[in-house]
Amino acid sequence: MRTPRGPLTTPPRTISKLQRLPYEIMSYIVYYLDIDEIFDLSLSCRHFQYLVREERFCKAIIATQASHTAEAQEAQRSGQFSRALRRIAKRRQALSRASPYVVGIIAFADSYEYIHGTLCYIVEARPKRWLRILDLHGSASCELVIDIPTLVYEAVPRSAKSRKYKFRILYHADGITSCLFSFALPRTENWLLIFKADEQLIVATLQLDSAAKIFVRNNKDYLYFGTHSEEGADGHRKWVLMGYDIEKRSWFSRKMHLADVVGYDIGSTVCFEIIDDYFYGLSNQTDFEIRETDWNSYYHCFRFPLHDPDLKNKQTMKREDGWRRQHAEGPIDDRWSFLKLEKDEASGNINIIESRKEWLTNQSGSQRTYYITGVIFDQDSEVDSNGESSAPEHNPAIGRSTGPVAYLDKPYGSESRFRSPDNVHPGDDNSMAPVYTRSQTHLRDYQRCCSTYLDLVDDTSSGGSSGSRRLRLRTGFRKSQTYWPSWEHLESNYELEPKSGSKGEPVYPYQPNRIYFWPPKQDESNRTPFIDDIYKILNPPDCQGGVIPNSDERSIVYAIGEDANGLKVLVYLSFDPAARLSGMLREKYVLGEQDTSSLQRSQAEGGYHNFEAETNQLTQRSSSKDKLIGDLSHRPLPSYISDPPPMHTVVMPPPEGCKPWAWAEKPMYQNFTRKIFAFAH
User: Fold this and answer.
1) What phi-psi label fits residue 330: left (phi over 0), alpha (psi between -120 and 50 degrees) or beta?
2) Which run of H or of E encompasses 222?
3) What is the pTM of this model?
4) Are 570 and 558 in contact (CB under 8 A)?
5) Which pLDDT score, from 0 to 100, does residue 426 have?
C-alpha cells in the first residue's frame, strides 16, 4: 500500500522576491511604470491583481498618470477608480493594437458630424427633415430628434416664405447645438442657430455678415464662432471672432480681429479650440508668403480667457518656444498634413500635434512623421498694446522634455534647434510594404496617450474582387526601450537615426513601430464567415462613394458611399471597453493582426534592437487564427464593459403656443436588421 505524502514532504509553494515586497515598496515601483505596464503586471500573477482592483491604489495611479481623462472624471463621481484604471489600460491597448471593442452600422444619413463623442446627423426625407443627436460615448439608449422645418420657422419666422434652404451642423458640446441656416429671399441670408434640444430652447439666433469658413466652439458657459472674412490692408482675408455669454444670453460687445493668424484650412493650417477656461488659436504658418531667406518656420499660438475676449488679455506663445522646423530639412507634401491641439491625459498640459510627410535631406524617399510641441505661456508675461505678450529671458528647461535631444543640422546663419525623441514619432516611409497612396488613406490621426498613429486604409491587396473597396484599420505603435544613454553622451553625439552597434553608441530610446491591421486578412482557402461579416460592415455592399471619417481618443465614425436611397452609411468603431449599444451581439473576439514584416525589415536594416526571437514568436502567433479569433459566448462580461444604467432623456415641453420641434426616440440603429458586434479581449 502506497504511503500518503505527509505535509512535511509537500514541496513549498514558490513565491518570487517581487511578490514578497511590501505594499509600500510596490507603490514606489509602480510609480515608474506606465498604466499599460501596470496592467500587464497585474495579469502576470494573481498576487498582483490588487494593482488594478484596490481602489486606493488605483486612485493614486490615476491621479499621477491619467487625471485628465473622461474615465478619471467619471471615477471622481462614482468612486470606482479601479474600473477607470482598467478601462484606460484596455482603451489604450485596443487603440495601439487595432483591436476595437464594438463595430457596427449605426445610421443612414445625408450628412453628419461627430464631435466629442456625440453623433449629429441629418436625414432629409423631404418634405420631412430631421436632425438626430446620439451620445455614443455615453452609450445612450435613446437619441434626440429635431424637426428642422419647425425649428427654423420658430427661430427665423420670415424664412417660411422661402421654399429652399440649407441646414448644416457646425458644433455640439455640453448639450448645445450650433447650426448654419441659409435661405434666399431673394438675396441669400445666413443665420447662426444655437439651441438646446432637450430643453426645446432656442438659445440665440444671429444673422451673419459672412459664413466663409465658419466654425463654432463652446462649453456650457460660453460660445465663440469665427469666419474667415476680414479684409486686410494687404489684400488677404483674416479671421474674426465673436463671443456669446450663454448664462447672460448676450453677445460680447466687441469682435476679435485675428490679423496675425495666417492660414484658412481648419485642421491643416489652423486650429481653434476651447480648452478649460480659454479659447486657443493655432497656426503653423507665420507669413502669407514663403520667404526663401527665412530658414525657420514657427507655430503661432495664442489664448485668451473666455469671459473677456479682449486683446489686452491675449497671451501669445513666444517665437522661440513655437519653433516648428527648418525649411532646409526638405519639402512637405501638404496633402498628408494635419494639425490639432490636444490636452495631455496625465499632466493636463496642452500640446500641438502635427503630422507632416517630408522629403528629408539626405534621404531618398519621403516619410510621415508626427511632431509634438508643448504649448508654453509665461504666466508672468505682460501684454503690450497690440495684444502680444512679452516676458523675461526664457528658461529653456521650462516646459521641455528632460530626456535626450537630437540636434539638427542648420544652414549658415540660422538658429541651432533640437527635438526630443519623445516628441518626434517617425512613421511610414517608402520602405514600408504595401505603400498606401493618399487616395487609399482615408483617416489619418495620432493618439499621443498610447504613442500610436491611426489610419483607415483601402487595402485591396488583402482580398476582394478587382475594383472593390477593402477598408481596414491600420495602427503604428511604438514602445520605449529600457536602455537610455547618458545625457552628456547624447548631447555631444546624438543622432536621430537609431543604431544597434557597440557599447557606448547612442541608442534610439524607442523600439521600431509595430504595425497592426484589423480585421485580420482572410485565408482564401479557409475563409472565416464571422470575419466576412465584419468586412461587410466596414465595406457595405454597393456603397462605392467617398469616405468621410472622424475620430477621437476612443472611437471612429465614418460615412461611406450611398445606399439605394441616396443616403450615406455611418459606420462606428469603438476602442472603449465600456461602450455598449443596445442589441449588439457578443459572440467572438477579433484582435488586430500584427504585420511582422515591419519588425523583420527593421532587423535586416540594422534597426533599433535585436528582435529575432520576438519576431519568430510573433510570426508563429499570427499564423494561428485561434490567437486572433476566439469564442466569447460562454464568458461573462468583465466589470468594465457591464451594461450601463438606463438613460432617460427628458425633453422639456415647448413654450405655450409653440409646436414641439424636439423629442426623444430609440436610436435609428435599433431598427436595422444588420448586426452590431461587440468584442472582449
Assistant:
1) left
2) strand 222-231
3) 0.86
4) yes
5) 94
